[in-house]
Design brief:
Order of helices and strands: HHHHHHHHH
Number of helices: 9
């Protein structure tokens, strides 16, 4: 693998990572209510899901997902349902916060590291767009040689590193913003907004059509 291919993949992956999506929304939902460490656990879940998708793509299993309309639809609906479920939970929490009339206290929610990890993992593992990205990108950047598998995992690691850096910066940013706005009403509004956007992403994913 030559450096120009690595640089090209880095640019493509970075643009994908920085585009608005459910990962950023999950960080925005987790950090203000559960703290930096929970946000970092979200990111660890992202990375684990990337390696799963990468391994499946390398083994060729994801090809079946993309070529089979039925399999693609099943995974798509599961992913959409999960995103909508996260959004609905956030709306319920925001509503309960309003009903409790405890504006003097932040609407915080204890989230274990394991729970945050699973949320991050499922948000990506159930997103067929991640598999589509790997299947579309790998053939363009991986050399046909005995080192193809090693090169593929190198690209997966690079993608994971870009995610860790970008969303790690987001964790720090949201932690700072949260420190400046401990108002319970502000956090409830944030939950309501992220809940609606998560549902929007879920609906968008549910209407995604197979184009590869």
């Amino acid at each position: 693998m030559i450096w120009s291919d690595i640089l090209a993949f880095t640019v493509v992956a970075a643009l994908l990572v920085m585009s608005p999506g459910p990962n950023g929304l999950l960080i925005a939902k987790t950090v203000p209510t559960s703290g930096r460490i929970a946000g970092a656990s979200n990111i660890a879940g992202f990375v684990a899901a990337f390696y799963v998708h990468g391994a499946l793509s390398i083994l060729g299993i994801s090809v079946l997902l993309v070529q089979s309309a039925t399999a693609f639809t099943i995974v798509k609906i599961l992913g959409a349902a999960y995103l909508c479920w996260i959004g609905i939970k956030a709306l319920i929490e925001a509503y309960r916060g309003v009903q409790s009339q405890t504006a003097s206290e932040p609407a915080r929610r204890h989230r274990t590291l394991q729970r945050a990890f699973v949320e991050g993992f499922l948000t990506n593992a159930l997103n067929p767009k991640v598999s589509m990205f790997y299947l579309a990108a790998f053939p363009q950047f991986i050399p046909v040689s005995e080192a193809a598998v090693l090169s593929a995992f190198l690209l997966v690691s690079l993608h994971a590193l870009i995610n860790a850096v970008w969303f790690g910066a987001m964790v720090v940013l949201f932690a700072q913003v949260t420190a400046l706005s401990r108002s319970g009403s502000v956090q409830r509004r944030l939950k309501a907004i992220t809940g609606l956007v998560f549902i929007g992403f879920g609906v968008k994913l549910a209407t995604t059509r197979l184009t590869l």
